[in-house]
Amino acid sequence: MNPRDRVWLFDLDDTLHNASHRAFKELNASMTAYIETHLGLTTEEAVALRHRYWTRYGATLTGLQRHHGVKPAHFLHETHRLPGLEAHLHGHAHDLAALRRLPGRKLLMTNAPRGYAERVLAAIGLSDAFERLICVEDMEIFGHSRPKPDARMFRVVLARLRLVPARCVLVEDTLIHQKTARGLGLKTVWMQRWLRKAAEGRRLQHRPAYVSRRVRSLAALARSPHF
């Protein structure tokens, strides 16, 4: 394959910036508060529900929409206000340089809403690094939110953008997303720049079979993009 025919699908949080340091803590708190307010639950019940839906569906919103009739636009607007977010985000010039050196098309594919993604990319200096943003608003099937790792959503998005799975590479920190993508014929890169563990907290010593490659920086990926 000509390297310039490759399509890179980059995740955002904990792949292009260190979301676990601050952003995820604030997001988790705002989602918990939303569930408390709109479902009438205690803090402990809201935390448990949020975690259960995230584990089952890959996103809290999916469970809230499916089981409680929560409107996605309202949930995303209320939970992603995050005042002062940009002050805690830091970009690196070498990341932008690495992305520019990487041959092929580059798209962002995130379970986050578009407004949040645009704010983060601007703060870390990567606003112009991607030709297209595929955000959670774009991951709907028949009116229902179907974020990563939903296989049907991957198929719909790839078909909509006329992308050939064999030419695509998903660059992610979340293994379950990569497992689904690999099953559909995409190659996968596990970004371990900030997170070195699986979602359930266990440290992995070996690269899972469905991960094509494991890297710890964008620079490392750009130095050797052929695999």
TrEMBL record:
Entry-linked InterPro entries = HAD-like_sf, HAD-SF_hydro_IA, HAD_sf, Pyr-5-nucltdase
Instruction: Keywords in alphabetical order, please.
Output: Hydrolase
Q: Name one GO molecular function term.
A: hydrolase activity
Q: Which SUPFAM superfamilies does this entry report, sorted A to Z?
A: HAD-like (SSF56784)
UniProt keyword Chloroplast, yes or no = no
For this protein, the record's Pfam families field holds: Hydrolase
Q: Which domain of life is it from?
A: Bacteria
The name under which this protein is listed is Putative hydrolase of the HAD superfamily
> Which organism encodes this protein?
Roseateles saccharophilus (Pseudomonas saccharophila)
